[in-house]
Amino acid sequence: MTIGRIERTEDDDIREALHEFPYGIYVIGTTRDGRPNAMIADWVMQISFSPRLLAVGFERDSSSLARVRDNGAFTVNLLNQEGNGMALARGFVQPADASKVKGRSDDAAAQQHDKLAGIAYQLSEREPGCPILDDALAYAECAAEQFVEAGDHVLVLGRVLYAEVLNSGEPLTSTFTGWSYSG
Length: 183
Ligand SMILES: Cc1cc2nc3c(=O)[nH]c(=O)nc-3n(C[C@H](O)[C@H](O)[C@H](O)COP(=O)(O)O)c2cc1C
Prior knowledge:
The chain is α+β, with helices and mostly antiparallel strands. It has five helices and eleven strands, in the order ββαββββαβααββββα. The strands form three sheets. The chain has a seven-stranded antiparallel sheet, with helices on one face. Bound molecules: flavin mononucleotide. Flavin mononucleotide (FMN) binds at residues 37, 39-43, 57-59, 62-64, 93, 95-97, 100, 179, 181.
């Protein structure tokens, strides 16, 4: 189909359709060498009742995946629409390692971005202690059990060791933010 002079392809149709799929907005907490990190993610879902398993799709080059491969621990924080949820989410969109964003100068690429600076959080009790955000609606603490190669991502299956509702409210979703990490 041609709109104006722009030729639409089947790939555009597929991308547009997949953009319509809704997701929750989560912050994945990890820790390595005593340094906690937090990665915004929306490819998260429960995939088993017994045992309770959560699946998280990680970009292959995310520092968070490397941390989970190293020590097998991560938290899943579901963000809240209420309060400062949207502002909180915005603070997590930069990668920890600035070189991950293509086209940056050498100086800019060498920067490490501490996404947790100024954010209220605790560390989960089990070693190595991963971030639990005070303002999350709910969180789950997970132990990685399987790493499944999935195209350009790696699906990590995590056993839920503990989980808790922390605040009241409605979950932050991709429908609410209008951000799309899909297609
Ligand atoms: C709204 C949104 C959703 C995202 N969802 C995911 C996701 O599900 N999985 C993923 O690996 N990265 C996702 N990302 C990208 C990561 O947050 C990003 O690649 C980050 O650089 C990785 O952080 P890290 O290097 O600190 O681990 C998403 C980004 C945004 C803005």
